[in-house]
Amino acid sequence: MDKKKNSPNREKAWEMFNKISSRYDFLNRMLSFGQDIRWRKKVSSYISKEKKYHLLDLATGTGDLMLTIVKNNKSVIQAVGLDMADKMLLIGQQKISDSGLENKVQMVRGNAENIPFESESYDIVTIAFGIRNVVDLQKSLNEIFRVTKNNGQVLILEFSLPSNKFIRKSYLFYFRYILPLIGSVISGDSYAYRYLNQTVETFPYGEQFCELMKEVGFNEVKLVPLTFGVASIYIGKKSK
What we know:
With 240 residues, the chain is α/β, with parallel strands linked by helices. It has helices at residues 3-6, 13-19, 21-31, 35-44, 64-72, 86-98, 137-147, 165-187, 192-201, 207-216, and strands at residues 53-58, 76-83, 105-109, 122-128, 148-159, 219-226, 231-238. The chain has a single domain, classed as 3-Layer(aba) Sandwich (Rossmann fold), CATH 3.40.50.150. Strand 6 and strand 7 form a beta hairpin.
C-alpha cells in the first residue's frame, strides 16, 4: 500500500469528531463489540497503586479512558482531559458531573501537538485512539515526553493490524466496508468512518511505533497486543 497516497487529511479531524459527538460513544461500543471497554480497563491495570499520581489524558474525547482510570485507580488524585473537539468535551464534562468527580477531573480544550502545560507536569500521560489522528506524530511524541515527569509513565492505546493473515484479512474487510457503512448510517457522517480505517492503515503500529517512542527518549518501551492484535497498548517510561 502507498501510505502517502492513501493518507487521510488529519488537519481538521477534531471538527469531524464534533459532528459525530452525539453518537460517538454508542458507535464505539457497537462497532468494537464492546471490546473498547475491556481495552480501557486493561490500560488502567498498568497503573501502579503505590503512589499518588497526576494524570493527563490527551485526545480525551468524551473522557472514557480518563474516567475508567480514575474510577479504577484511587492512586490517581487529579486528572485533566485535553481535546480540540469542544462538543466531545461537553459530553465528557457531563459524565464527570454525573460521576461526582468535578473536584478531581477537568476538561481542557487543547492540542496534543502543543500541550498547554509546563514541562514535567504529569506522572502519567495517556492517549486512546488519538495518536494516529495527530498531524505531526514526531512533534506530539516530543510534547508527550516533555510534559511527563522524570520516572513518569506513558500509556498509549491505539488500533493496529493483526499479524495473522486470516484475521488481518477479515479485520480489514470489516474496517474497509462494514464499519464505514454502519457508522455512516448511525452517525449521519459518511466520511468519519472511512477516515477511521484510513488512519489505522497508514499508522506506524507495532514495533515501528515502539521505535518512535524510544527515539524521543522513552525507555522500557513495551508492546501489549489486544484481541488478536486489532489494538495495542504501548507502554513507556521516562527516566534520566
